[in-house]
Amino acid sequence: MGTEIERVLYQAEDFLRRNVLRPKSAREAQKRRAKRKFEEVLRRIRRAGFILAGLLVALIVTDIVASVGFLAWIVAVPTIFLIAFLSLFWPTRRREAPVAASAPASPRSLRDMAIRVEEGLADRIDELPTRALPAADGIIARLGELQPHLSELEPNSLAAGDARRLICEHLPRLVDSYLGLPPAMRGPQSDSSQRFTESLATVAEELDHLLETCCRDRQLEFDTQHRFIETRYGEHRALKGE
After folding, report:
1. What is the mean pLDDT for each group of 10 consecutive residues in the chain (242 residues)?
2. What sign has the CA pseudo-torsion 6, 128, 124, 185?
3. Using CB atoms within 10 A of its CB, is residue 124 exposed (0-12), middle (13-18) or buried (19+)?
4. CA-to-CA separations, 101 to 37, 73, 84, 161, in angstroms, rounded
5. pLDDT tens digits for 189-221?
6. Which of 7, 49, 133, 143 could form a cystine bridge with 118, CB 3.0-4.6 A?
7. Which of 114, 145, 105 is CA-nearest to residue 25?
8. DSSP-derived 3-state class of residue 151
9. Which sequence spans correspond to the domains of the chain?
10. DSSP state, residue 25
């Protein structure tokens, strides 16, 4: 009887956490992914338009210079449209090869890898234990906040190295190793699920520290401007008796 009650309570908790209590971080991650896909579609359409226009111009110029003939036009025009159409299926960005542990990743590759890790975690979040969802949602939110700042890091800086190891190596390995366990070892009350939840919470805390590190210069700039405004205009108001 007690086991049945625990099972029902867990199912109720699972439903609430996955459908009612989920923060907006998962929805924001989906919005970011949809925006990236839409931008990719626009880039492919623009590229296809350039290819189509360029090849047609080249054909016209060739015809003016060398008079390619009517038969060549019949063959060339459909071929040009076919090439432009096929270009819609070519990615506009070449996927970067994984960065070796000893090699510094460029800021651009760090940002791109953070995007891929965020999307991978969002895709597999339904496979994670219910009590790990708050930490997973926090990680997704932090990865979204970190992406623009990762582009500004110096490739050889300590912060870039920490970001690469945490985001690109340790976090994916943790998730992969847990999901690689047999289902029986990933039960809601299993020791593996509990330890995984604790480890994921630790990663979320480290991402908080990493975000603080990445934003330290901006925070210092804000504090400087704040002190200047208070010193300059606060004293001015005091002198005027305001």
Report:
1. 56 54 63 80 92 92 83 89 92 54 55 88 85 87 86 81 90 93 84 92 92 77 79 61 50
2. negative
3. middle
4. 29, 54, 39, 9
5. 789 999 999 999 999 999 998 888 887 767 777
6. 143
7. 145
8. coil
9. 1-94, 95-242
10. H
